[in-house]
Write a structure and sequence with these properties.
alpha+beta; 7-stranded antiparallel beta sheet; Dna Ligase, domain 1; EC 6.3.2.3; 438 residues; magnesium ion binding; nucleotide-binding; Rossmann fold; Glutathione_synthase_a-hlx; 26% strand; 2 domains; 6-stranded mixed beta sheet; magnesium
């Protein structure tokens, strides 16, 4: 049984609505950044140099494939995105601030649909004091994501007769329940079948004919990544796994995400967008710029290109580390530094200017509320908790540059006990929950 909260968690309706309304703007920003190769290279060059085996390889492969294809992304660009927010402030003054933008393997859409249904049932079954209107429906989340994948799949079928979707998964995948809900929804609603393979299996089993991917006798329309976001995903046979990534990205199948989308989701890009002129490079409408900037938390650079405001933030972090989080270019949870560990890391590196692979972020202090959390089907405990909101959205731009999808899909709420630093569910820190919007 997935770790869950027993009941929905209260969340301000105003801020929940704001996060929903921002989803399409975040999608458009993501897509524009991903196609600005020169800007991505300038922003990520130092991080790539300090992390050559992962960030460096992603960036190098991205450049190689674009050069080979005259700058065109074959198969178009499909993103299943999750923008994560945390409340900052007290009481009615609390507002959302963006924690990160997840562009690869955005998980728990399937289980979030289920837990919203479970909480709605519990509230009605036991006549609990939750107004029905306060429980926003999340029932269409998984069907919305399946619809976006189907749109990319059908775009492929306009040229070729039949195909299946490839789920790129981890070796020994532990999150199959969440993935299988999406897989079954694709079949039930769209009659689309799914093949599941690890990166290493793809290299061994795939055939390429005229840039078309053939796997188990079927063409592949979409390569949907639930793996490939961390070095460990490339396994012991590292070169074989990277070869699989190159084969998929070079083909006419749609990658979800493309390398450009994955790179746009890095912490360094998020930090650079927060600089003055960052968002403005990609968004012309001033009101839209202000809406996006309004949810940015404080973000500062580490590394050799630190500016005066970055150096000042690093100095404050040395003096009051409890007010900051230090983040590397990694996804999946469990990689961040908090409190005294920030100071130790900077001292160990000989100063913040030697930490190009990290950024510094202000630590948010969201309102707390009591929660009963369950893990493994048993009550883990009851006490003060805090929650993180994830907003799912999807975007699909075909090879000709036509935007066929850009929409809000649903939400995820993760709740953890106060005092727990990290927020991942699969990594054992948080539980799945749902919203009571008031």
């Amino acid at each position: 049984m997935a770790p869950v909260s027993l009941l929905p968690q209260s969340y301000p309706l105003r801020e929940f609505t704001k996060a929903q309304s921002l989803s399409t703007s975040m999608n458009s920003l993501l897509d524009r950044v991903s196609t600005d190769s020169a800007w991505l290279n300038s922003v990520l060059s130092a991080s790539a140099a300090s992390d050559p085996d992962f960030t460096g390889r992603l960036l190098s492969l991205h450049n190689k494939i674009l050069a080979a294809n005259d700058g065109v992304q074959r198969g178009g660009r499909l993103g299943i995105i999750r923008s994560d927010y945390m409340l900052s402030g007290v009481g009615d003054d609390a507002v959302i601030k963006q924690i990160e933008l997840n562009t690869i393997a955005s998980s728990f859409a399937g289980l979030s649909t289920r837990i919203s249904q479970m909480h709605s049932h519990i509230v009605r079954r036991f006549d609990l004091n939750y107004p029905p209107s306060s429980l926003p429906s999340n029932s269409k989340l998984i069907s919305n994501l399946a619809s976006s994948l189907s749109t990319a799949h059908n775009s492929y079928l306009k040229k070729y007769e039949s195909a299946q979707i490839l789920f790129v998964v981890q070796d020994g995948e532990s999150n199959t329940a969440d993935q299988n809900i999406l897989e079954s929804t694709l079949f039930e609603l769209h009659d689309i079948k799914v093949i599941r393979k690890t990166l290493q299996q793809i290299t061994a089993d795939i055939t390429v004919i005229d840039n078309r991917l053939i796997l188990e006798g079927f063409e592949i329309s979409v390569c949907y990544f639930r793996s490939g976001y961390a070095p460990k995903d490339y396994g012991v046979d590292t070169e074989s796994a990277w070869r699989a990534r190159e084969i998929m990205e070079s083909s006419i199948s749609t990658c979800c995400p493309t390398l450009g989308y994955q790179l746009t989701g890095t912490k360094k890009v998020q930090q650079e967008l927060a600089r003055e002129g960052g968002v403005e490079r990609f968004v012309e409408d001033e009101e839209e710029v202000e809406r996006i900037r309004g949810v940015f938390a404080g973000l500062w650079a580490f590394g050799g290109e630190m500016k005066e405001e970055d150096k000042a933030a690093a100095k404050r972090a040395m003096e009051s580390p409890e007010d900051f989080v230090m983040k590397p270019q990694r996804e999946g949870g469990g990689y961040n530094f908090y409190g005294k560990d920030i100071v130790d890391k900077m001292v160990e590196a000989g100063g913040a200017t030697n930490l190009d692979e990290f950024i510094l972020m202000e630590r948010l202090n969201p309102p707390k509320q009591d929660a009963t959390l369950l893990r493994g089907g048993e009550v883990e405990g009851r006490g003060p908790s805090l929650s993180e909101l994830g907003i799912f959205s999807s975007v699909f731009v075909n090879e000709d540059g036509e935007e066929l999808v850009n929409k809000y899909d649903g939400y995820l709420l993760r709740t953890k006990f106060d005092g727990v630093d990290e927020g991942g569910v699969a990594s054992g820190f948080a539980t799945l929950s749902s919203i009571s919007a008031t």
